[in-house]
Amino acid sequence: MLQPQAGKTGVMRAKAGAAFLGIGVSTFWKWHSEGKIPPGIRLSARCTVWRREALESVLVQAEGVQ
User: Fold this and answer.
1) Sign (positive or negative) of CA dihedral 21, 47, 52, 30
2) The 3-state secondary structure of 11-37, one letter per residue
C-alpha cells in the first residue's frame, strides 16, 4: 500500500505526473479528461500543474480497486 511520505509536497507538470503514476503522458491527459485525475492548477495558458498529494490519492484509489 502506498504511504504518503512526510515532507514530500510540491507540484508536478503532466510529464512528471505521468511518470509518478507509471503511465504515459497521453494516458495522463486522457484520464484527466475522463475525471480520473483531479483538476490541475492552471499557472498560465500552457502550463498546468498537479499537487503531489492529489496524484498520491489517485494511486491510493487505484489500489483499492484491485
Assistant:
1) negative
2) EECHHHHHHHHCCCHHHHHHHHHHCCC
